[in-house]
C-alpha cells in the first residue's frame, strides 16, 4: 500500500495511461536515477541540444544580466543545471548594482532539490540560494516575482511538447510580475535527423532514461511494470520527435490496487520534442499575453533562446 499523499498521483497516472493516447507524465522521469541517466545522456556526442544551449547561454549571459538586472535567477527544471551557473557567474560579475541577488530552484523531487540547494549555496556563498518543491508549472511556489530571470528548456523529459505550449505559456504568464523575464530554450528543427539521433541515441542512453520512468513508478507507487517488456521508440512526424515505450505483449499493470490494461498497439507516449520557427512561436507567445523580445540562435541555427516578457513590458530586441 502507498501513503495517502501519493493516491492522487496514482489516480492521475492511471487516467493518463487509460486515455485515448496513453502518456507517461514527465514527473516520473526525474528520480535520482533518472537525473543521473539524463546527465550521462547529455554528454553523448549525439545529444547536441544541451551542448548548443550551454554555448548560447555562455555567449549571451552577460547581456541578459546587464539588460534585465535580475534580482533572482530561477530554474524550473530538475536539479541545478549548468546553465543556471552560467547566469549566476554573469550576475556576480555584473557588480553591486543589484540590491538583492539570489537563485531559486523549483524541483518536484525533495531530495534532489535539497542536494542542488546545498551545492549551489556552497559554490555561491555571496548569493541567497533557496529551493521550492513543485512541478515546473507551479512556478507560483517561488513567491512574488518582479525582476526574476526564469530559465526553462521544456517541461517534458526531452523538450517542449507543441500541444502543451499554449497551457505552458498561460501558466507562466499568470505567475509573472512586472520585470520578470523568461528564457525558453527551443529547437529550430533545422536538423531533423540530428534531433532524432539526440532523442534516440545509438548507445541506448535515451532508452535507459525513458525506461527508468517505469522503475520509478514501481518504486513510488508499488506498481508492477516490467520494464524489460517494453521497447523504446522515437519517430519524427515533420514537426516534432515523439518518443514512446511500446509494450511487447498485452499487459495488465497494477497501480495502487487498480489495474490498467496495456496493448502493443497503443504505445505509451513519453514525450514530444517540438521544433519552432520564430513566427510560429511568436504567435503562441502573443496569444498568452506575452512578448517575444529577443530570439538568440547559434551559428548553425539549431537551437534558440526565446526571451519572453509580459506584454507591454518593453522590447529590448535591438540590444541583443
How would you name the CATH homologous superfamily of the largest domain?
A: Vaccinia Virus protein VP39
Tally of discrete structural domains: 2
Largest sheet: 7 strands, mixed
Unreliable parts: none
Please give the number of β-strands: 12
Strand order of the largest sheet: 3-2-1-4-5-12-11
Briefly note the structural class of the backbone: alpha/beta
Shape: globular
What is the CA-based Rg, rounded? 20 Å
Q: Report the mean per-residue pLDDT as an integer.
A: 89
CATH architecture of the largest domain: 3-Layer(aba) Sandwich
Distance N to C terminus: 54 Å
Strand content: 15-25%
CATH topology title of the largest domain: Rossmann fold
N-to-C series of helices and strands: HHHEHEHEEHEHHEEEEEHEE
Q: Specify the number of helices.
A: 9
* Oligomeric state of the chains in view: single chain
> Helix proportion of residues, in percent?
25-40%
Overall CATH class of the largest domain? Alpha Beta
Structural overview:
The structure is a single chain. With 320 residues, this protein is an alpha/beta fold. It has two domains: 4-29 and 195-274, no CATH class; 48-192 and 278-319, Vaccinia Virus protein VP39 (Rossmann fold, 3-Layer(aba) Sandwich). It contains nine helices and twelve strands. Strands 3-2-1-4-5-12-11 form a seven-stranded mixed sheet, with helices on both faces. Strands 6-7-10 form a three-stranded antiparallel sheet. A two-stranded antiparallel sheet has the order 8-9. Strand 2, helix 5 and strand 3 (128-133) form a beta-alpha-beta unit. Helix 2 (32-42) runs antiparallel to helix 8 and helix 3 packs parallel to helix 4 (82-93). It is globular. The model has no long low-confidence stretch (mean pLDDT 89).
